[in-house]
Structure formats: C-alpha cells, structure tokens
Amino acid sequence: MIKAGIIGAGGYAGVNLLSLLLRHPEAEVVWLISEEAHNGKKISELFPHLTEICDLACGTLADVGKLAKKVDVVFLALPHGMALDYVPRILKTGAKVVDLGADYRFSDEKVFKKWYGVEHKDKKVFAEAVFGLPELFRAEIKSALLIGNPGCYPTASILGLAPLVKKGLIDMDSIIVDAKSGVSGAGRGAKQITLFCERNEGVMAYSVNNHRHMGEIEFQVGRLAGYPNTRVTFVPHLMPMSRGILATIYSQLKTENLKLKTKDLTILYKKFYKDEKFVRVYDTPCTKNVSFTNFCDIGVAVNEETQTVIVTSVIDNLIKGAAGQAVQNMNIIFGLDEAKGLEQIGVFP
Asked: What does the record give as the active site (predicted)?
C-alpha cells in the first residue's frame, strides 16, 4: 500500500486528488495539510461532500518535516513559488514528490524565471525534476523522484500538438491556441473575476499575451519538436461552467505536406496514441465527454483552402489537468498499472 500525504488539500485540485486516492485500491492517504486558517479542521468541514467518508484533520506547512517521514509520496498543490521551500526537505526524507504547481515544470531555469519571476534555490533538486506528461515522457517518469505535474492548459495543448510537431508537419511559427476553461481553473479563492454575476452568461478572454501557461506550452512543444525558439500565440478564456478545458489549436502545414487531408491526420493521431489508455481520437470532442475522467479527447481536421490544421483537445481541468494526472504519475513511479484508480467513466449529461 502506497502511503500518501497531500499539501494544499483545501483547494480544488487538492480535494479532487484526495477523492481519487480515497478510491485507489493501492493507496492510503495518511495526512493532509492546508492553509493556516484550516489548521485542526476536518477536511469534511471544508468539503461537506466528504462527510462520513474522510474525517482527516488538516495540519499546516510547519508540520512538513515530520509528516513526510510517514509517507511514500507527497503531493503538493500550492501557489507557484511556495513548493521551492519544501520540496528539497521532503526529498531528504526519502519520500517521492509530485508537484501540481508550476515550480518544477521547466528544465531551463532562465525560462522559469522569465515566466514566474522566481529563482530556484536548490539547483540540484531543480535538475532532478521530470515533466510529468505520461503519454510523452513515460520513460523518464518511471525512475523519477520528483515530478512537475503539467498545467491544465498545457496538458490539452501539448497532447493536441504532439503528433504534428513530432512528425514535423507544421510551421512551428504558426501555432495559435484558443483555449476555454471552466471557472474552477482559477482556484477556490474569492476573486471578482469568478463571481457568479461576473461569469454567468458571459465569456471573456484574460491574460492575453502573458498567461504563464504560454511559456510552458512553448517550452515543451519546442522540446518535442527540437525547435527551442518555438513561439505560440495563446489566449485563454473563462467559460460559465465549473470544469473542463477546450483547446482549439491552429497551425499551418509545411509546403511539402499540403496534400494531407483530414482522414490522413486522423489516422496519424490514432496511430500516435494507439497505446495510450487516456487519449481518445474522434471527430467532435466535447468537455462533457471527459468530465470527472482522466481522458484527453482529440479531434483533428484540415482546411484544404487555407492549409490550416485545426485540432480540438478537451480535458477535465481538475482531473487530467491536475489531480488525475498526478495519480497517473504516482502509479508509474511506483510500478503500478497507470490506470489504477482512474477507471471512472464520464458523468453524462
């Protein structure tokens, strides 16, 4: 039985992670940590849907050192910059780490500092981190001690782009990602932008040209393509729904690939992901089809008049975009079937 601790259990990603681990046949949640205001409170007080299901009380970050010694893996779901102070300490106890935040998603310190404005204090630990997108980096994940769990927008975008860039089919300077997210992606904290009256019956773009996930998409797509100067136009939007991400991705076919049709790329995508349990390829992906699951559903089409490839990629931002992918990574690093505990079917309608 894998013993696990969760830091950041009071947030949306943290509580979804807890829910998955409570149902996992080979995992046991030993302790929870949340913000100072939650110290001593039962998790069921913060989330009443867990009443009589989980009554673990929340500790605080001051307890990390002693608590980490009691578990095999620690999950962190903290705002960017905070994990840097705790991950090195946790690793010294022998526990493995899956960080759902942004602090260990880049293998280039300069790129991380550009997007997050923070210096890594422990260069050795930084160098050990593996980007945890299993469908693309499984071999590295297997032997990792520290996983940088991908962001939600990057997960949908990178999986949507990977077959095109790995095969060298598109102009790398032409990538546009138009993405929509449910409001839970903004976290549980109170903000004007996420108030019901602000978001209901309306859609808005935000962080145009400077959303931090743009840097993550550029970095990892460039890494896949062997094209480190990749630039992506990325525009996120908030939708009046609780959960889900739809990334619509546009790019231009290279001149030598202009004969490719929709059916050709559909075959390519199905072949590329044929062994991937959590990627499905079909014509019209919809966020409803992946709600509460670890699936990424992808559709691809070619506009033959403009030589534009159009990819649609959908995930549940809290599962494949956060907690589910973290569990998938845990399964891999502990040698389990990576679908263990993630077999749930989507809730529809």
From this structure: 152
Phi, psi of 96, rounded to the nearest 5 degrees: -85, 160
322 in any annotated domain? no
DSSP letters spanning 274-314? TT-TTEEE-S---GGGGTTSS-EEEEEEEETTTTEEEEEEE
**DSSP character at residue 322:** I
Cβ-based neighbour number of residue 261 at 10 Å: 11
Q: 113 near 102, Cβ under 8 Å? A: no
Residue 189 shares a structural domain with residue 69: no
Q: Is 114 part of a structural domain of the chain?
A: yes
What's the whole-number mean pLDDT along residues 327-349?
95
Cα-Cα-Cα-Cα dihedral of 246, 80, 211, 236, to 10°? 20
Residue 53 burial (CB count, 10 A)? 12
Same domain as 211, residue 265: yes
Residues 176-206 have pLDDT tens digits of: 999 999 999 888 877 888 888 888 999 999 9
